[in-house]
Design a protein that fits this description.
The complex is a heterodimer. By secondary structure, chain A is an alpha/beta fold. Chain A has 4 domains: 193 residues, Pyruvate-ferredoxin oxidoreductase, PFOR, domain III (Pyruvate-ferredoxin Oxidoreductase, domain 3, 3-Layer(aba) Sandwich); 183 residues, Thiamin diphosphate (ThDP)-binding fold, Pyr/PP domains (Rossmann fold), CATH 3.40.50.970; 73 residues, no CATH class; 113 residues, Rossmann fold (3-Layer(aba) Sandwich), CATH 3.40.50. Chain A has 20 helices and 23 strands. The longest helix of chain A is centred in the first third of the chain and has 21 residues. The radius of gyration of chain A is 27 Å and the shape is globular. The C terminus of chain A is likely disordered. Chain B is α/β, with parallel strands linked by helices. Chain B has one domain: Thiamin diphosphate (ThDP)-binding fold, Pyr/PP domains (Rossmann fold, 3-Layer(aba) Sandwich), CATH 3.40.50. In chain B, 30% of the residues lie in helices and 19% in strands. Chain B is built from 12 helices and 13 strands. In chain B, the strands form 3 sheets. Chain B has an 8-stranded mixed beta sheet, with helices on both faces. Chain B has a 3-stranded antiparallel beta sheet with strand order 10-12-11. In chain B, helix 7 links the parallel strand 7 and strand 8. In chain B, helix 1 packs across helix 7. Chain B is globular and about 75 Å long.
Chain lengths: 629, 351
């Protein structure tokens, strides 16, 4: 190794990236790696970076060991576990100077394949496997466990934690457990015998995880749908949303199936396409069940006509949109926040829809349940906007909680008793000014309260009409309803900067993971920003106030066209010149380094940073310690 | 004009059914379709069938797509909830509704454009899913509301009113329904109420996906000599394989038909459909034979009507899904929400 470059030294603050081949069984070993570190009380931020493919293509797993608890990507790699010859050159190039390269040294590689400025950690994995196992499948699977064992020694990960996890995984399958243990020990023994363990980067036991849980957003959102009382799910498989519907099935088997009779208090239909999915959701919700679909951008495109019907005929519907790289088929296994406009204004004509913007799996659970109350209360589609980064990655998140005194809000539903008592029923009659009319469930009364649901124009009593005044009256009421929605949505989270400032920053969703860390770093650099995290659309009135109160507002989002900025300009009537976009849209999750650099440069340009007293340091300066919000 | 209401005064001597409803209670708004439209005859048959079945009107949900046929639910069962959805997508909306409340009766009304063109996909999947419903296609081979374009069921070689000749092969929805797994498949003719009313009644009593294709001439655009869906053509070429009587379970079944020409099929609610056979060889329980028969008659330019196939032992989507017997829309917090303690266990499993 080049003597001028010192090997990186860090305890509990470094990035490990596994470069694997899709379908090689590496996911299980890599997951064990991340969870063993969590069990040592050290937070991790882990992400699968995978292709739209079943077997044979490159896949990566990036684990950021971060005692400070940041949940975003940092950018850069300190230790590369290079197990895929296809991507070797690119993987090796990605290592930070002074970093480490772990690889299979069975077959000698020419020196040109290596770098001078990284520490080489070659382990003859294939040779060890071939000596130990005769079966090709075993050789492949146990190779993963052997490298896990070697890494545990190199990074000082407590092998007892890995063994405990293996024990939980293979409970009742003693033979499998034993062979995994053995493979783990082989890798460990080799590393201990051949390297000075631990290397410069290592893990040390802490108590920084607390009672947080490790869960993906799709699974959490599906659990939210269970707690939100959803009984009907209709969906069509599409990455990255499929696991949401499948998780719903899993949770329902656990919580909604009668143990003795096997009867199910739910119905799940894998529909023939997204049009049918949303049609079933609308039919079920019209008939008084709580119903949802899970989809991604292409599905949203297909659902447009039905969404206009649900808006205009005022039928509750919940949609989980797990956004992916777009447009068109785009990057199915990459992340973006690029469906904001197509959801907010879905369908032809004058339409506006309610969006919920969760920032992590915990909010996926909360908003996943809340969406059903909102849809029933507002009698309109409600979109829960996840993205691949939240939906498909395991995040360290606060434990899920439920208030047992909470009851479903079914909204304005006129009962048979109320109809019998002579209450005037007009399906589109606003009796109290909130823009929301009463509905009746089909079959509830023999002679009163029936009406015809249609996508055509109708009067307050649901009678077909093409009269202009009746049409305008209805469209104005829908606007009033949208105003009511503002009062019911989760409020933006406003956090003032540490010092008085004329600049602010607005973001939503998964951007928050990198944003928290970037803001700490920027503050360290003397760039102070008041913060507003949006959680819903239509925007609360405080959003316009926040923008008005600042000279410059950065809007950070993960799409090319600044869709959030468009919505802000359009809905809040703000001067576009006040808003400066920070856009990240290459399909990878936005990083702390990207935000810090972009905002840092622009802030200096705008003189956001006071020239006197500012402690401008290099972008690599890090704020030590402290736990992420 | 759909917003005109019919006079509410009833003649005191109007006959009532077992629930005390008169036929008027099953009617809807005044039709806005053209005078003589076959669809209005189908509406009348639906009214008659539900009246005779003693089904409370509000226990029926009627759903449709877009088109002349899809407008008709306004003209019958005025005390039922109706849903005029989007073009070709009634089946998915009906499926969702049926999932939410298994206790209502679902009547889907569609047309040949709605089901055979834009909605062919949903038509297929709702049948193969076994949704418990009656699916009626009011089939006139033409787009009425947009003024006379051919639909996908128009016969090859048939002429439009303007003289254009259809060069595409027709889709036979009955054959498709058989292939797709519908468990009750029939064809009627809007001009033959004697046959149609018992068909509808038997379809309602059937558990599972019941499909009725009703040839319904369009007086405005498709009732001319070049059309194979005109009144005259169908009357001349109708090959009725059976005549039906539908008897609810409580009525004694009279056995006054000659041996060999009568066949009783017991349906799910205990009601019986009695087939008075016109064609001695026709067996409605043999799907393969039914398909062959339909094709052989079609080759001769004949329109086969009657109950073409029924599986009396069929079951529906809810049975396949093992859904609880209480309608899903009637379940409350206690049935659905696992609570905070359960969440604590979930949390513990994720550390």
């Amino acid at each position: 190794m080049d003597a001028r470059v010192k090997p990186l030294v860090s305890v509990n603050d470094f990035v490990v990236k596994f470069a694997n081949v899709n379908g090689s069984g590496s996911a299980s070993a890599n997951g064990l790696f991340a969870r063993a570190i969590l069990r040592m009380g050290v937070p991790v931020a882990a992400r699968n970076i995978f292709p739209s493919n079943i077997q044979g293509l490159p896949t990566w797993y990036e684990v950021r060991i971060v005692e400070a608890g940041w949940r975003g990507r940092r950018g850069g790699v300190d230790l590369m576990v290079a197990m895929n010859p296809q991507t070797w050159d690119k993987d090796v190039a990605e290592i930070e100077p002074g970093g480490y390269l772990f690889y299979d040294s069975t077959k000698a590689l020419p020196p040109s394949k290596f770098r001078e400025d990284v520490t080489l950690l070659g382990v003859p994995l294939t040779a060890i496997c071939n000596a130990q196992y005769s079966d090709a499948r075993q050789r492949q699977l146990f190779k993963n466990i052997i490298y896990l064992g070697a890494l545990s020694a190199l990074l000082d990960i407590d092998p007892a934690e890995i063994e405990r996890l293996l024990g939980e995984q293979y409970r009742g399958k003693e033979a499998l457990l034993e062979s995994n243990r053995k493979a783990l020990a082989m890798g460990r023994d080799y590393a201990l015998a051949n390297f000075a363990c631990p290397i410069g980067v290592s893990v040390a036991r802490r108590d920084a995880v607390g009672n947080r849980i490790f869960i993906d957003g799709n699974s959490a959102a599906a659990l939210g749908a269970v707690y939100g009382g959803a009984t009907v799910a209709a969906w069509y498989p599409i990455t990255p949303s499929s696991s949401l519907a499948e998780s719903f099935a899993k949770w329902c088997r656990k919580f909604r199936t009668d143990p003795s009779s096997g009867e199910r208090r739910y119905a799940i239909v894998q529909a023939e396409d997204e049009l049918a999915s949303i049609g079933m959701v609308i039919g079920a919700a019209w008939n008084g069940a709580r119903a949802f679909t899970a989809t991604s951008g292409p599905g949203i495109s297909l659902m447009q006509e039905f969404l206009g019907l649900a808006y205009f005929a005022e039928i509750p519907a919940v949609l989980f949109d797990v956004q992916r790289g777009s447009p068109s088929t785009g990057m199915p296994t990459r992340t973006q926040q690029a469906d904001l406009i197509s959801c907010a204004y879905a369908s032809h004509g004058d339409t506006k829809h309610v969006l919920l913007l969760p920032e992590d799996p915990r909010e996926c659970f909360e908003f996943g349940a809340l969406a059903f109350d909102l849809a029933d209360r507002l009698q309109t589609p409600v979109f829960v906007m996840l993205d691949l980064d939240i939906g498909m990655q395991d995040w360290l998140t606060e434990p899920l909680e439920w208030d047992d005194s909470r009851a479903m809000d079914r909204g304005k539903v006129m009962t048979a008793a109320e109809l019998d008592a002579g209450r005037d029923f007009g399906r589109y009659l606003d009796v109290d000014g909130d823009g929301i009319a009463y509905r009746t469930y089909p079959g509830s009364h023999p002679s009163r309260g029936s009406y015809f649901t249609r996508g055509t124009t109708k009067d307050r009593y649901a009678r077909y009409t093409e009269e202009g005044p009746a049409y305008v009256d209805n469209m104005q009421r829908l606007l009033r309803k949208f105003e009511t929605a503002k009062t019911l949505l989760p409020k933006p989270v406003i956090t003032p900067a540490g010092e008085t400032t004329s600049a602010g920053v607005i973001w939503f969703g998964s951007t928050g993971a990198a944003m928290a860390e970037a803001l700490a770093e920027l503050e360290h650099q003397g760039v102070h920003l008041d913060r507003m995290r949006l959680r819903g659309f239509p925007f609360d009135d405080s959003v316009a106030d926040f923008i008005a109160a600042h000279e410059h507002v950065f809007v950070v989002e993960q799409n090319r066209d600044a869709q959030l900025k468009m919505l802000l300009v359009n809905e809040c009537a703000v001067d576009p010149a006040k808003l400066t976009s920070v856009l990240h849209y290459d399909g990878t999750p936005i990083t702390e380094r990207f935000i810090t650099r972009e905002i840092g440069e622009k802030a200096r340009l705008y003189n956001v940073t006071p020239l006197t007293g500012a402690r401008i340091q290099g972008a690599g300066a890090r704020k030590a310690g402290g736990r992420a919000a | 004009m759909t917003y005109l209401t019919k006079p509410k005064l009833h003649h005191p001597a109007l006959p009532k059914n077992a629930l005390g409803y008169t036929r008027r209670d099953y009617e809807g708004a005044i039709s806005t379709l053209c005078a003589g439209c076959g669809h209005d005859s189908i509406s009348a048959a639906i009214i008659q069938a539900f009246y005779e079945l003693d089904i409370a009107p509000h226990r029926v949900a009627k759903l449709s797509g877009i088109g002349c046929s899809s407008k008709t639910p306004t003209y019958f069962l005025g005390n039922s909830h109706g849903f005029n959805s989007v073009h070709g997508r009634m089946p998915s909306v009906l499926t969702g509704a049926a999932l939410a409340n298994r206790d209502l009766i679902y009547l889907g009304v569609s047309g040949d454009g709605d089901s055979a063109s834009i909605g062919l996909g949903q038509f297929a999947h709702v049948l193969r899913r076994g949704v418990n419903m009656v699916y009626v296609v009011e089939n006139n081979g033409v787009y009425g509301l947009t003024k006379g374009q051919f639909s996908a069921t128009a016969d090859k070689g048939s002429k439009s009113k303007r003289g254009a000749v259809n060069s595409d092969e027709p889709i036979d929805l009955v054959l498709l329904a058989l292939a797709l797994g519908a468990t009750f498949v029939a064809r009627g003719f809007s001009g033959d109420k004697t046959q149609l009313v018992p068909l509808i009644k038997a379809a309602v009593a059937h558990r599972g996906a019941a499909f009725i294709d009703v040839v319904s001439p369009c007086v405005a655009f498709n009732n001319h000599p070049g059309s194979t869906k005109s009144y005259d053509y169908v009357r001349e070429h109708n090959d009725a394989v059976n005549r039906l009587d539908f008897m609810p379970t409580r009525e004694p079944i009279a056995a006054d038909y000659p041996e060999g020409s009568v066949r009783d099929v017991v349906l799910h609610d205990g009601g019986t459909v009695r087939l008075r056979k016109l064609d001695a060889d026709y067996d409605p329980s043999d799907k393969v034979a039914a398909m062959a028969y339909l094709e052989s008659r079609r080759a001769k330019g004949e329109v086969v009507t009657g109950l073409l196939y029924v599986d009396p032992a069929s079951d529906d989507m809810h049975a396949a899904m093992k859904t609880v017997h209480v309608p899903l829309n009637a379940l409350g917090d206690g049935d659905l929400v696992p609570g905070n303690a359960a969440l604590g266990e979930v949390n513990a499993s994720l550390r």
